[in-house]
């Protein structure tokens, strides 16, 4: 892993070696969050972690700590192969009368090499999955196409559970590539579900998904979005803003995992405050890919953490 990392980082130096220009704008204020604000997210963190487990374990809801942490959860649909199609699951969570949709992520080094490709393509969203999307909205086509594979099946199951259980809320979660899929799913479900059903999303170590128009549209539709970034994780800084990619609002940055120092960052992708992701990782060389795995309030997420 480390030699691959070394090769990758050496290759990236050529592209990202120059330090980021000094920002002259005044720093926007962050909000300091309490340990409780962070632990309130634990159940979502464990759902995001569980998505790294294979389908049979998910359907039986026997995936070690991640499943035990949310004991009454009923998984009703799961699929994927953990490779070409990420594992995912949908189910009912009685504690919050919610439907949960969770997507697996992928190997962070493989993801980094894809997302630092300067020829990365953006494209328009499918109008069946994203009805009413304005012209100009574009996302990374890899994320878009991966989301599209399971989107209708997931949407049908979400609707079925809302009807059967009387659920009033849908929460999409995911880590890494799974965070990007959760972001797309939150928007797609928001556009396809009745207004009285709440849709929110909580993601971890999520790369940038789409362009400014996508972000504007997303922010106007999904009003409860939290994207949690850990310390100097590199993944939230790619694809680069210079390639026309942006983040929706809702950044929560774990500044120091050990000390549980955690802030909510203003705006969409704050580049003025020392405590937010961009300033923490001003160039790709100052990041740490191991931070991608956590800990998110003591919880690690990744293929080796399904036990
Ligand atoms: C859009 O998505 C629908 C539903 O998955 C599919 O039937 C249709 O072929 C897609 N359209 C395009 C242009 O990809």
From TrEMBL:
User: Which Gene3D superfamilies does the record cross-reference, listed alphabetically?
Assistant: alpha/beta hydrolase
Where would one find the signal peptide in this protein?
Answer: 1-17
User: Which CDD domains is this protein grouped with?
Assistant: Lipase_3
Q: Which UniProt keywords apply?
A: Disulfide bond, Hydrolase, Signal
Sequence ranges assigned to domain Fungal lipase-type in this UniProt record:
105-241
SUPFAM superfamilies membership:
alpha/beta-Hydrolases
Q: Which reaction does it catalyse?
A: a monoacylglycerol + H2O = glycerol + a fatty acid + H(+); a diacylglycerol + H2O = a monoacylglycerol + a fatty acid + H(+)
Some GO term, biological process aspect, for this entry: which one? Answer: lipid metabolic process
Query: Could you give a GO molecular-function term held by this entry?
Result: hydrolase activity
Name the family. Belongs to the AB hydrolase superfamily. Lipase family. Class 3 subfamily.
Name of the protein: Alpha/Beta hydrolase protein
Species of origin reads Mycena belliarum
